[in-house]
Amino acid sequence: MALEDFAAEMDRCSQCSYCKWIPFDQMKSWRFAKNCPSVSYNNFNSYSARGRYAVARSLMRGQSGYSDTVRDIVYKCMTCGACDVSCKVCRYNLEPLQMVRELKFRLVEDGQVLDEHKAVVESLDKEYNTMRQPKTGRGEWADGLEVPRLFSGKAEFLYHAGCRFSYDKDLQKSVRAAVLLLKNAGVDVGIMGEREMCCGGRVYSMGYRNEFTRLAKANINAWAKAGVKTVITSCADGYHAFKRLYPQLGSQVEVIHIVEFINRLIKEGRLTLRSVIPMSVTYHDPCHLGRQGEPYVPWKGVEKKIRNQIIVYEPKKPRYNGALGVYDPPREILRSIPGVELVEMERIREYSWCCGAGGGVREAYPEFSMWTATERIVEAKATGAEALISACPWCERNFMDAINAMGDTMKVYDIVELVQKAI
Amino acid sequence: MDEKKARLMEIVGKAGVFDTPEIGESFSLDHNLIPPLKPRFMVKPRDVVEVQKIVLWANQTLTPLVPVSSGEPHFRGDTVPTAPESVIVDLSGMRRILKIDRRNRLALIEPGVTYSQFLPELQKEGLRIAMPLLPRGNKSVIASLLEREPVMSPKYQWNLLEPLRSLEIVWGNGDRLWSGNGAFRGEREEDWKNGLVPVWGPGPRQLDFYKFVSAAQGSMGIVTWASVKCEVFPDLRKLFFITAEKLDDVIDFTYKLLKFRFGDELFIMNNACLAYILSNEPDEVESLKDTLPLWAVIVSITGGHILPRVKVEAQENDIWDIAQQFGLKMVPGVRGCRSCELLELLLKPSKEPYWKLRYKGGSQEIFFLTTLDRTPGYVTTMHSAANEHQYLVPDIGVYIQPVHQGVCCHCEFILPINRLKGVEMLRIQELFRDASFRLFRQGAYFSRPYGIWADMVYNADARTMLVMQKIKKIFDPNNVMNPGKLCF
Amino acid sequence: MTLPKNVYMALEDIVGAENISDDPAVLDSYRYSLTHTAIHLGPFFDTYTPRGAAVLLPGSTEEVQAIVKLCNKYKVKFKASSTFWSAQGYPSEDNTIQLDMRRMDRILEIDEKNMFAVIEPGVIGATLQAEAMKVGLNTHIPGSGCSCSTLASATSYFGSGPSNLYGGWHYDNLLGLEWVMPTGEILRTGSLGSGCGWFCGEGPGPSMKGVARGFIGSKGAMGVYTKCAIKLFAWPGPGKLPVEGIVPAYKTSLPNNFKAYTVAFPSWKAWADAAYMIWDTGIGYLAHRQFNMFGRDLKYAMIKILTDPTKTLGDLEEILEDPEVQRVTEYCKRDFQIILVGMTRRDIEWQEKAFDEILARTGGWKVEAMHEPEIHKWVLLYLIRLGHKNLNLVFGGSYDGCFGLLGSADYGTAHAEEAAEFKKEWEKRGAMVEAGGDCMMGPIGGQGGGGTCLWENFTCFDPHDKESTDGTLEFFDACTKLGLEKGWGVGMEKWNSVARGPDGRTTPKEERDRIHLAAPQPSVFRYQHRIREAFNPNDLGDAYYETLEDS
Lengths: 423, 488, 551
Known about the structure:
The complex is a heterotrimer of chains A (423), B (488) and C (551). Chain A has 423 residues and is α/β, with parallel strands linked by helices. Chain A has 18 helices and 10 strands. In chain A, strand 6 (302-306) and strand 7 form a beta hairpin. The termini of chain A are far apart. Chain C has 551 residues and is of the alpha+beta class. Chain C folds into 5 domains: 5-102, Uridine Diphospho-n-acetylenolpyruvylglucosamine Reductase, domain 2 (2-Layer Sandwich); 105-234, Uridine Diphospho-n-acetylenolpyruvylglucosamine Reductase, domain 3; 243-387, Alpha-Beta Plaits, CATH 3.30.70; 396-441 and 451-498; 508-551. Chain C has helices at 5-15, 24-28, 61-74, 125-134, 150-156, 164-167, 170-173, 209-212, 268-281, 299-306, 316-320, 323-331, 345-362, 373-385, 409-427, 466-486, 509-517, 522-535; strands at residues 20-21, 54-56, 77-81, 96-100, 107-111, 116-119, 137-138, 174-180, 186-188, 224-231, 233-234, 243-244, 251-252, 258-264, 286-289, 335-341, 365-366, 398-407, 440-443, 453-461. Chains in contact: A-C, B-C.
């Protein structure tokens, strides 16, 4: 695809500003009504999806040119997809998330890049991770776990830890617990360890399509060599990349997030959580597991019109609007932990507020990223919950940093950590 | 013959010009706080063309005009000339009811149409109009609505000017304009059939013309025609009292009724006010005051043409339940007054003499807008001021009328006075002045600033005054319309 | 065109560097496409409003006042908007600075007892409703939906919507108002100006709120409104709307005192009779002919799509072939939606009985297919929150409304079918969505308590397609011609063409004068001219405030 492919949408955007709000039906208060961190923080219309449609059109037509402001507008989008969900409450023929991605791709292609992102890409090129850490240390999180390395072996299931979990020691309890869970469940699972490569999801959302493609193909090949049929991950970013992006490049493996797997085990009676954890918790839906975690449906088709001017697609186009994201498994897990009381925030499921880490924003705009996370912490605290639970290390890290900066005492757990405590 | 008189006679005919001394007296002040000036003439135009000619003449000769539609007595000083050589424009002769349309619940009336005249005609068509409390029989309907006199049924008041809709206005500069969609005129039967009816109040377009003549005390222009919104004449009507020793005790109950829009006529009175309404003779008042409850919420429930009994029964039971929730009781009568008796009175204009005058022959009113929850505080202030000025507190009638569907309320203190007692009158004037200022400083909003209230409010709200003066310059550049009123 | 540097710097000093921009890309995101729902003008293919000189995000009344005073000093035009939906909120001239009021978005107060809220321009209907509901209150939401600014609707435009009937339209609901006038002075109307609070917008004496807005507002052309109080009304429901369902088919289960009906009638006369009876009887919380905006032929099929999260527009044709859908479509031809809300159990029971009686007397019926529980729950949420008004543009990405037939129920119903037939013939030409001609949407009760209806005939087209856009314009021109021939007047399709023309800029004076001179009362515009001279002597707005010079 190219940005020009969205020219029609640029004209057909309703200019209604629904992209700035959670679906109105779901609004419960003034305080937690907004959905887009970008326009909420920066305020100018250009920082919203409708604004980016207009900016893209302006650039395409040569009515304006690249500037610091334009880069700011484009790269301060977390590609969280909240705008997409809200737009699609009413519209069936607009794809704002795809458009903002194309806008980023275009800027990168044209060399309009940020130094902070360049640094990440360089790290990726050299060390296969986005954490700017040596690749040799990647597998250390799994030391002592006795799990096969699939770069020299085969297994049906691959557990992919991801860059954040691999290097962020504070979070590693979770991935270790995940692997143990899988092993104890009798799953034929291996890891890539120090040969694991980034999924490419992060740089994809920064606008680096080629780098992503390169990584994706490398991963797909590595899995094929290892005979992997199913990839399991605890990282929502990785989940989205493998599930929604990789199939576009030919991947055919099944992709499961650890919460789906654990939930399946609980339902099948293969995992019982007995230890009481008396705690009130609230759950944060990661963007890439929730609204962007919908199954991929391949489609190739064209636009057509019915009834003169109703825009539809031939064949019927699959609809990605957050309806089929992974929302219930983590909630069912939490509800099955004795003593845990789940209280919901106002913005949840497909209209969840982003953690602030995505799209290269954490790397390039730390203040904005922290503001976004802080907003979420405030929302979490408003529920009265003692702890904030999520299922993505990027979310968890951003929340932990925000809580630290706030001087607050709210706890943040990866859901697997909590499960492990309850076993 | 006086040139002015001659010219006026050319416009309205010989019989339409009056310059006898009596006209001066009938427009002299009941109000006593404003020095009266006797008018030079009174003219009675017969139609809008004559009105327009009068206004144009006034501009040419710089003659002040004071429009009047209602019969005497006049109370508030707005019809008292405050400039020399004024001419009263008496519109009471323009008293046609041009149209009553049941389907659209609209009536077209001229300014001289009074409540006494209007109500029976409406009833014949199955209609009624949201009424102020016991207006004088000779009170002009248009004048009452233009003055923003509060109506008894807050639920029908979607904005403060309701039920006033389109107007025909002759501005102070002589222009004639129809506000709302009065340009439809509604003169042709086929227009009514086709639905081209003057049902809107605001506009046209981006100016709200009728707001400029609202509570303007005739200082912007003369209204010669209005469409007014009516309600269905109910098949069934019941009236109830909810009483209490203290005003505070009925406030929240009243709020509940307002929130649910239960009840039709709905207001609060104290015993004195109710006594003034019920009494026929002055010496009945004291015993009535002693008998009647100190405070009463009066609520009527109406049922229209669709299942009236079902509706009335439902609301009656609901209001009963609500009263109980607040530890109150809803009763169909109180000692001293049965509901049918009061209902009979409320649905008509006041009998003669006008109810506020029956006790002592004269009456001073202090009224303003506020929110219902603040009214007990204002009652306390009024009582305090009365005590300080040796006015008997039990004589103060209190009438609290929720308006605009309960967003605010009209709060009125009625002070019967004996105009013949000079010393008493002086004390009343002092009390009036003092109480008005104290209430204003406490937050009472004098939205209809008669007499001394005008200086009071416009000194505090200079910006509004400046805007008003600009508007006045546009619509009455020569200041011929009732000069000296408001801030003009 | 760029703003002189000294002016830019002075403005930057007022709002802060982070709240002003003249970057061309940013400015282009503040241009409105006139191919679009320009609201009553156009559509004009590939035409945009002029680029602003700068866009500012003021944060307070003081900042707004300082900006306006500066604009007067340097004779810079300015135009404020809150949500920037519809061309009305955009400049008509070059060198205009744009004020984005989004940062001023506080709900300052909700007075539960006296039932009003005090709000800033950035407050939208949805958030006001959410907060009001917590204390048992509700707000009227204009027909453009809950994404729009309540203050803007009340002060600057129209304010009519589905809940006019019970909630009053926003003209009725506007109480105290804080207005930064075009010269920078601040007028606080009514009780606010007297320091008594927000509860009354009128007076003292004649109401100067009448300068701020009439039947419609000044559409951003006369200063900036920075706060207002808005009247609320009772909400006898849960403090939060209990929403269920899979996106986008959200729905709500409300207690039994909430009932949504779609009713239909054997004739337009019966339809009108029912409207009058509803108004006479005083029942109803909300009444609107809403879903007909999709078109007589398509509305029920669209409901089937919207209430099923697995369906998309791509399923429309298949659904239309279903005989049951065809039957229901025919059955609800002359319909409208109504929500009855009882303050108590007895109240809803009485209203239901009264409504059934009205249907019996007029020969109307409840459309049972629309009361199927899942659809009923969807309809309740849709109409109460009115958060799906982007559906106006669902088909091709744009729409505008023609005709209007604003007036009493008898007026609109007398001409509705003729207007529908006219459109139906034009639909066959291909420029617009073929939807059955009658795509008329509007309130049952244009003002509090009823009295009027509006028949906005939705015309849906593709703004990316020149033939579609040009064909729609041709159709609108034909509508205007028909309206004038029939004595209906100029319809909604042209209500704003006096303000802005095909180049996106102010309509030339000769054309404006021609239109105003042809109005029933040209003096109205002459007075507006004098008002503008008095209050906006530097003429820093635009022709959305309509004026006619004295001859």
